[in-house]
Amino acid sequence: MANIDMKAMFSLTYGMYVVSTNLDGRLNGQIANTVMQITSEPLCVATCLNKANLTTELISKSGVFSVSVLERDVPMTFIGQFGFKSGRDIDKFVNVKYRMSEGGTPLVEDWCAAAFDAKVVRTVDMPSHILFVGEVRESVFFKEAPLLTYSEYHSIKKGKSPKTAPTFGFNALK
Question: pTM of the prediction?
Fold first, then answer.
């Protein structure tokens, strides 16, 4: 990797999201910065999640996921609940306001400006992650609010990436 300057990766822009799913009534979600719209007809979004995460396992089995878009003012305690704790140990949705989409995924309302429900239409197996492509079946706009970017997460909130995040290697550059 001698020709790769990891600082160059900071020029890519990312948002911050809660990616969630529901498998037979078991809700789980995680913080992610790898979400993007990839087509408009049909409307599809993609997210890339670490294979070790419970959310990845549950999406693989359920075939559905939701994306809730975090607003800039979200407290680190909320990010920590979804980002630094495992759904294997806690119920991440305790004391979190959400509504269920018609497709059965949780759309997080707390600290979120909008949310999407998607049905997985394709997966791409990467060495450490799985890329899920989902066709959007429902979307809801909650409110106008400045959105949290990945850059602001680091510069303003002083957040770090967990070991299973695609951007974990950037922590050393801080």
Answer: 0.88
